[in-house]
Amino acid sequence: MSILRSTSRLRPSRVLSSVRPRGQISCESRRPSSSTTATATSYVTSLLRKADYENYVATLFTPSQSRQAVWAVRAFNVETALIRENVKNPQIGKGRIAWWRDAIDKVYDGKPPIHPVTELLARALDAAPLSKSWFKRILTEREANLQDPQYATIADLERYAENTAAALLYLQLEALGLQNPQADHAASHIGKAIGIATILRATPFHVEERRFYLPSEIMAKHALSAETIFRSGPSPELEEVVFEVATAANDHLITARSFLKESPPQAHPALLSAIPADMYLQALEKANFNIFDPKLGKRNWKLPFRLWSAARTKTI
């Protein structure tokens, strides 16, 4: 990440730097037809544009023969991530997670339920060997998240990110037909950066619902509690907490770049999701790590150009 110029309120020690290199649908089953696939693709792309716009734009740089599979994988992620946001009762949420577990099993048995995402996943399996274990890992983490866990440390946040955002990137690499250790290492670090950045980005929304996921260990170091933030919102102490968490995400991007240099160029489209996370962290730094700054909620018009430039230069 490039270093942004300090503002009058931003001490040099708080500039991000290279700290260290490193709704359910019928379960009736059938094989999707071409017309069904077209309808499913329309549903999935509409879902991604609305709920995962930045990553949807990144997928447009995926080779056309793999794009539909990548869309299916990302739509699965959106559908399962929204369960916690749409359901207040954890038991109902567990029921929906169970439906998706069963649906994934049926997809791998060649009998996908009638649902746009599972129909596209069935098509994807015809073209690429997607590992069922990554889908199951994402679902396990989504189920744990229904209980609104309090993460104690950065390592806890990293485990969450590895089991969600990184697992998603492993599936995208598989959709591209790639199995490469260096690309996997890059994906792991990018996934951790994305997961942590996503938690940061969603914090204002979570606070409105009296939920809080930033590590309690760092909060305690700065004499902060979730209750204080619920009552008072922004503070210099919270900016210090956010800075530490954002630095961890930035460190993962730095490490990912070193692995990317050793990865096959064909892996690059799966790793472009690093760009929206990087742009958010840069914007957060510009906002002096005030996570409630309203500018952070605006869509960045530079994203398509940044993605195009990264795709052309094979960088992140």
UniProtKB/TrEMBL annotation:
<keyword id="KW-0125">Carotenoid biosynthesis</keyword>
<protein>
    <recommendedName>
        <fullName>15-cis-phytoene synthase</fullName>
        <ecNumber>2.5.1.32</ecNumber>
    </recommendedName>
</protein>
<dbReference type="Pfam" id="PF00494">
    <property type="entry name" value="SQS_PSY"/>
</dbReference>
<dbReference type="InterPro" id="IPR002060">
    <property type="entry name" value="Squ/phyt_synthse"/>
</dbReference>
<dbReference type="GO" id="GO:0016117">
    <property type="term" value="P:carotenoid biosynthetic process"/>
</dbReference>
<dbReference type="InterPro" id="IPR008949">
    <property type="entry name" value="Isoprenoid_synthase_dom_sf"/>
</dbReference>
